[in-house]
Amino acid sequence: MTHSETLAKAGLTEAELSGGTLAVHSPIDGAEVARLKQTDPFDMPAIIATSQEAFQIWRRVPAPRRGELVRLLGEELRAAKDELGALVTLETGKITAEGLGEVQEMIDICDFAVGLSRQLYGLTIASERPGHRMTETWHPIGPVGVISAFNFPVAVWSWNTALALVCGDPVIWKPSEKTPLTALACKKIFEKAAARFGDDAPEGLLQLVIGGAEVGEALVASKGVPVISATGSTRMGGVVGPKVAARWGRPILELGGNNAMIVAPSADLDMAVRAIVFSAVGTAGQRCTTLRRLIVHKSIKAELVEKLIKTYATLPIGDPRSKGTLIGPLIDQGALDAMQTSLEVAKAEGGTVHGGGPVTEAVPGGAYVAPALVEMPGQTDIVKKETFAPILYVLEYVGLDDAIEIQNEVPQGLASCIFTLNVREAETFLSSVGSDCGIANVNIGPSGAEIGGAFGGEKETGGGRESGSDAWKGYMRRQTSTVNYSAELPLAQGIKFDV
Ligand code: NAD
């Protein structure tokens, strides 16, 4: 299918795709596929005011009814899955299965949020005072600003939006300037669901703003947007987080990772190899949860590295739309240059590089690379950095405590895992003295999170949690209420204050 056909099938019109200043390129072949009109930062106050007005209406709609809108959104996504998945592939370069997988994740979070809409539970708390009842209730908080990254252009929006909507909050979405087309398509899908839902979905419940950091900054700076959910690099989070906090807003930060796998002597190596390859080269190493560090027991390192080198040599690299391709392009030439620079630094720090380098015969115009395995003498500076490309550093360990120390000795804290058949090792890894990450798995790679669990990480990954578990609480305000149904007025802590 040509790019124009993919765009048309996703419902995007020529008028929407032209006449603006934001050039959008497909990483598949570098072709310019659109020139979008950008949002003028001067228009942001009016956009935020519209969202505030929508909030006045939406917070009054009962939560299970709000869930009905999300149910319809899930239905529309099911109907549009193939077309939206193909657009994700066109705009990010993900292989077809991963483009479709991203849309499936959107469907899954909608299902989760529909159930949640009847379970926004509060608490009843025992009061120390006779004739008193204490409760905790969750209320809608207001507009949520969603700033998303290029690599999960639509799933991250849906994680936030499905929850925000059932929680009673409107959403203003600023997608990555590298992937605005999938956002336009999602807005249309949402509008179909809203039209079916009826009149109690207010105008401006979901608004889309297009542009770069300056458009995002207007959201970040506004007191009219109490929650900012920002997904992207640690550099971006370092700017956004303090700005939101300084105006007493609530940041939910989902930032970079530097994810590791410990492979213990008892590990099922064949299973580990499959998990390593998917986690390290899937999405061409451009997942926040991509496996970047392999911490292998000295006794099995040579065997495992040999198996990996053999497997890496067979991986099909090329057009992400073609059947059989496992590694598509990087997002752009800048990402390829950054990968090459990191490999040079790794060599200078004592690394032995297997693979890597541009794959020029793939598709002309695209930034295709061979994934790299790099045996390192230790955890040097470059290993502690996230390079958003398929580079897997291999380190060795002798004792499990050392392995855990190496795993935790980086600034990021997103995803981690151990491959072992030894229950003592597995439980130690998951214990309070084990992995310090938000995600810690046993006999599963670090990437490919499932809806249901809270997603996010510690340290420079930002501390935010999204998607499952009680992440919904981040989109609501908590109210503690005490009701006195007695004829006395006892004070807490036994204080006597007779007047
Ligand atoms: P990026 O930081 O360059 O951009 C992310 C978004 O932030 C974009 O929409 C961008 O326009 C916006 N932005 C940048 N500066 C801003 C500012 N000062 N104010 C407001 N908005 C601003 O990231 P990217 O290259 O698109 O994505 C890759 C990064 O995202 C990687 O580090 C990856 O690990 C991370 N990521 C993390 C998660 C997670 O859940 N933890 C998920 C996906 C991606």
From TrEMBL:
Family: Belongs to the aldehyde dehydrogenase family.
Subunit record text: Homotetramer.
CDD domains: ALDH_F7_AASADH
PROSITE patterns in UniProt: ALDEHYDE_DEHYDR_GLU
Protein name: aldehyde dehydrogenase (NAD(+))
Keyword NAD: yes
Active-site residue numbers: E254
EC number assigned by the record: 1.2.1.3
Keyword Methyltransferase assigned: no
Keywords: NAD, Oxidoreductase
InterPro entries: Ald_DH/histidinol_DH (IPR016161), Ald_DH_C (IPR016163), Ald_DH_CS_GLU (IPR029510), Ald_DH_N (IPR016162), Aldehyde_DH_dom (IPR015590), ALDH7A1-like (IPR044638)
GO MF annotation terms: aldehyde dehydrogenase (NAD+) activity
Record domain Aldehyde dehydrogenase: where: 20-480
